[in-house]
Write a structure and sequence with these properties.
The chain is built from twelve helices and six strands. It is α/β, with parallel strands linked by helices. Strands 1-2-3-4 form a four-stranded mixed β-sheet, sandwiched between helices. It has a two-stranded antiparallel ribbon with strand order 5-6. The longest helix has 22 residues. The radius of gyration is 20 Å and the shape is globular.
């Protein structure tokens, strides 16, 4: 990571609000959303020494908000304080990374593709629809219908989804994967939502001395190793939440979504997430494309 970062011409600015510090453990964690972040919000509570009874109360006080739950024990610290922690010999700077395209598809499927409101997909009570979905459809629906045909958003075609949603539902009012990708390609990454912002950008990986980078694809083994490193094997346990795989292998899901895109769109996506590929050692081979191989 240090070698790859030394090749970058510009330094990233640190954003202290993204970090979850536990000073007594000399630990600073940056969550990469859609890469075991919910699990680690829970782990942070255990690492802070909270009992199961304490954790139950924190969850009750902040229902459905794991980030707020973790903030109870890992409050915001100034950049100078974070630098002070990172300069200690016991310092552990940690993040969990995930294949950039796998993470992007997961974020789309979880936040954009499915309904979150009870009885109306186009409800402004759905924060992701109100903030992103409505605008994406307004801007790119005409292009999608021209490209894929008038029946693409029919009920028989899962309203444009390549995989039927078994654990939720959708309607034609929600963005298709292709429309979401157009939004990604024509929007500055600095303004992306945290669930699809490049991890290297969100966590400023070339401006903070991370010394533990775990990979989502091998999370059980690497998490076990990290727990041993910080003498917390009794506190950190694998948990699986927010899984929307419809019973399919991740490679099969990825292929179904990327088959919708042409090669130019895939290469343009790669340029946006290139730092994540290069810095974290990920590759992508698809339809003759060989990215970071």
């Amino acid at each position: 990571l240090k070698r790859q970062c030394s090749n970058k011409k510009s330094r990233q600015s640190l954003k202290y609000k993204v970090f979850y510090p536990l000073p007594r453990k000399s630990l600073v964690w940056c969550p990469v959303f859609k890469a075991a972040s919910t699990n680690w919000m829970h782990n942070i509570l255990h690492l802070a020494g909270k009992t199961e009874k304490d954790i139950e109360k924190i969850i009750l006080d902040h229902p459905q908000q794991p980030n707020e739950q973790a903030r109870v024990v890992a409050p915001l610290l100034s950049l100078s304080k974070l630098r002070e922690i990172s300069s200690s010999e016991e310092f552990k700077g940690m993040l969990v990374v995930r294949h950039p395209f796998d993470r992007l598809v997961s974020a789309y499927r979880d936040k954009i593709e499915r309904c979150h409101a009870y009885n109306n997909c186009a409800s402004d009570s759905d924060w992701y629809y109100k903030t992103y979905g409505k605008k994406i459809v307004k801007k790119y629906r005409k292009g999608a219908e021209l490209r894929f045909g008038p029946d693409y958003f029919s009920k028989e075609n899962n309203f444009g989804s390549p995989i039927p949603l078994l654990s939720s539902w959708r309607s034609r009012s929600l963005p298709s994967w292709w429309e979401f990708v157009q939004y990604i390609l024509h929007t500055s990454p600095s303004s992306y939502d945290e669930h699809w912002k490049p991890a290297s950008l969100y966590c400023s990986v070339c401006s903070f001395p991370y010394n533990y980078i775990l990979h989502f694809e091998n999370i059980q083994q690497e998490e076990k190793f990290f727990a041993q490193e910080i003498s917390a094997s009794d506190l950190i346990h694998p948990r699986w939440e927010n899984r929307n795989n419809e019973g399919l292998a991740k490679e099969e899901i990825l292929n179904k979504y990327f088959n919708i895109l042409d090669d130019d769109e895939i290469q343009a996506l790669y340029k946006i997430y290139e730092d994540d590929f290069v810095l974290f050692g990920y590759q992508f081979e698809f339809r003759g494309l060989r990215l970071n191989v």
